[in-house]
Design goal:
The chain is mostly helical. The chain has 31 helices and four strands. Helix 13 packs antiparallel against helix 14. The chain folds into five domains: 129 residues, no CATH class; 63 residues, no CATH class; 199 residues, no CATH class; 98 residues; 148 residues, no CATH class. The protein is 58% helix and 2% strand. The N and C termini lie far apart (95 Å). The longest helix has 33 residues.
Length: 753
Amino acid sequence: MVSPLPQKPRWSSFLGNWIFDKSKQVRAECRLHQRTILGCRPAITAPQLLVKPAASARFGAAWLSRAPLASVVLKTALTVSLKSFGRRTQKARREAVERRDPDHIPASDSAENRASDHESNPSIEISNRPNGQYNAATVPCSSYRTHDGEGGGSHDAIEVGTSSFQQPQSRYTRDTTVRVESEGDIENEERSGVEIATAALGQPQENGQIPFYTGGQTGPTYALDICSPEKSLPRHFLIPSHARFPLSDADQGYLQAKGVLTLPGKKSCESLLRAYLHHVHPLMPIIEVDTILEFQQNGRLHEYNLLLLWSIFFVAVNFVSRTVYEQEGYKSRKEMKASLYSRAKCMYAVGEGMDKIVLLQSSLLMGFWLSELDEHMQPLYWTGIAINLCQMLGLHRNPDSSKFNCNITDRQRSLWRRLWWSSFYRDRWLSLSFGRPSRIDLNDCDTPMPTATDLLVDVGGLPEGISAGFLPAGFPGLASYWVTLIVLSKQLGAVITMNYQTLKSRPTIQQFESREAEILRCTLPDQYQAGLTDLARFHSLHVHLHYQALLIAFYRPYGTDFPIDLDPVVRRDWQHRMRLRAGDAASKTNDIIDVLAEDNLLEYAGPMTPSLLVPAMQTHLLFYRSADSLTKRLRLHKLEMCMLIMEELQKVYTVASIYRGIFRKAMEQICPFYQATTAISDQGMSSARTTNTSGRDSIVNAAAAHQLPEAVFDNNYLPANSSEQRNELLGDFMDSLMDETSVFNFWETWNRM
């Protein structure tokens, strides 16, 4: 006969109350540190962590009243369990503090997202501060309906925070959930592979929009070539575009706080777009003109890709009038340029999954940013991203290499060529300016050279009124100038490889003469052609500046070096001729900038213009070492001319200020009394020039106003017995600054400024 259940002992009631009190204490503590624990382990949720201990406490209290004998054992077990639970909570909290990662915190806070079982994630609310940074995540206290894993009975809702305790059954349920989600992801990933294969085989299930490049024979799609030896499969094709997830509320709030979602005024937008198409697009034809103008004319510019739009505006600020940046609330072009660049960079940061063509275009444009406050975001950084994207998309390869690729339109071919060769242009001239290795090896590329027609594909159908309002006059001529720049860039790459590579071998005289002949065969625009607009004339002269910089980079190392098989009898005379040719190129650079100043064309100068003066300035410094005092005076005056031009350019371009600071220090080292007698300071030069004038007369007068004493240029200026001092002052400094690879090495000093 089963004896009736004994009456509930007095101490069991006390134990049940003690368990509930202890649970409340732990819950309060966990709620206090809720954000810390969830920030560390976002997959562990509040219901999972505490519901089992709380449910066990209630069940234990009820069971204790019916089983006095077992109650003693259960009391001890529950006590140990709660102590262990407390220790594990503290441990989890310590680990969270050490390795907290707020980026994994969910950002939803809707009642629909609150699940009824203990495997659901708690809703987390992320708010924004005015400065655009994320605020601390807060998890609202919620009620959950829990189910006991043992008895299957439903219990009352429990208000929970967080905990680190988890029953084995919860782990099994978690593993099952993850496995199901992984299987779904795997199916999507495999379907992507099938889409690539069907598009490569010419059997796409739907029209493609995204360019895809299969890669070479080592790529995975070579398996399709093996299975289809009877036909040549295309390397470039289009794959379907999948819907991207919209920006989260947190990202939208961040962009709003940073001003990314607020465009300039309508008139300012028109001025910025017009300035871009006049001054930047002829040099970097990387956008589809008719597309953006269609958005602008229809009043839908805000619907254009914001990343690309801010990148366009950022570069265009260099060429807008003072009225534009003042209307937008900025004190200078530099201030407005920094603000717009910041917005473009913010948009780039949240642009995950964005079209790679847009990312490529924006990276090329943001490569014009340079600031001493943003060292890791220098032009090389953004240009490197652009080149990587080009190679990912296969723009370095000819889509029609094996046969005509009907998957690619002529418009896409033209845009891809423009993107690739614009990236190539930036790679070569940044390599010269910064003294860094080139990223592009033309032995890996077979993309055809561009033509002027490639720039006219997306502008030919524009209405005459729109074309006249936004495009510069004589745009076809400017397109031919860009093609010439690409030809010069190819020659520059060959010169850098021959003269400046780290593990280079000296060329033979035949290799030298062959390269020289190719450079001299380059066809340059006629800078005195009648009927050219001021803008076209500037671009023509700009091409000539590139050419003279190329000649200097080619000839100057051979003022001290020589080809490996050069006859020793003629070596000295040959080196002298190379020095003269380098000096002649530097002097022609001065002639060009003299014309730019005389005709008031410096206002058209772009971000690359200051860098094109550096090779000539270095050559003037190098020739200052001549024993002829007249030569010293002439070279120093030519260097002064370049410095005055740099002073004008530094109003807009930070890099001009950096160049000017470097050469100012070099001039002081060469001529100790130069600063005191010439007043090379900003104030001295500014006072010698007329306001808002870049004319030749004002610059020449400024240079003439500060004449150095002839003794400075006299060989006897230093004591006759101080040859060691002379060598230390001139020789050592010039050797370190102006050796064969000086176009690269002096940038180490620049990088530390």
